[in-house]
Amino acid sequence: MALPPGQRAVEGFPRFGTHLHHPPPPVPAEPVIEIGGAVVETATVSADDLAKMPRREVAADFHCVAGWSATGLRWEGVSFAPFYRERIAPLIEPGATITHIVFEGLDGFRAVAVLEDALADDVLIADRLDGQPLNGDHGAPLRLVSPRQYGFMNTKHLCRIELHTTEPPVPDRYSPISGHPRARVWEEERHRYLSGRLVRPVYRWLIAPIRALSARGSVQART
Length: 223
Ligand SMILES: Nc1nc2c(c(=O)[nH]1)N[C@H]1C(S)=C(S)[C@@H](COP(=O)(O)O)O[C@H]1N2
Ligand SMILES: [Mo]
Known about the structure:
Layout: E1 8-10, E2 32-37, E3 43-46, H1 47-51, E4 56-63, E5 68-79, H2 80-88, E6 100-105, E7 110-114, H3 115-118, E8 124-129, E9 132-133, E10 143-145, E11 158-164, H4 196-216
Parallel strand pairs: 1-5, 2-11
Antiparallel strand pairs: 2-3, 4-5, 5-8, 6-7, 6-11, 8-9, 8-10
The chain binds ligand MTE and molybdenum atom (MO).
């Protein structure tokens, strides 16, 4: 399968992220996803609950905005669109029109997605990768998987889904590496303001140091 523009395949699936060298957050004894924001009342969905919902498998490559791609991954979990319809939509404040969703991880990581992108049919709340439960490196116990968007929209250790009626403030909006609000890999939407092609070489230069740092906090390094 061809890779999106500007991506290069890597061996395996490295741990990578803004967590850098920090080890993955501990998995709670009873994991839940909190649903908050423009809702009548904050609610929680437990991982046990989620495990009872219809399952879906998605085979996909994984593309980091820095330019590496892990190929041939097999994710399993619950499709996000029906989860949204059945478990989230009934909680929305009357009259509110949701435009954005924040996916937050146990490490405080936040990804802001446009609703339409989050509802794409290959978006999953995943709990398994390649036939095994997700490990700490790749987002235990639950992570968002959105294969047609760069890695930074694929929140690991997912613990909170927050609904918004306008684009929520993006803390790194003016940072030199501020992510594109849609982050679609085939459109090469890497940066919020600069063209994907233009930032390619700069981002690529970040791969080695971030990868080396991330490996230091890896669960593999500690077993
Ligand atoms: N919770 C959390 N999710 C995260 C990150 C992070 O630092 N923390 N980094 C993102 C980035 S930039 C990438 S490329 C992918 C990397 O996923 P992997 O470690 O499974 O390869 O996770 C994304 N999701
Ligand atoms: Mo990334």
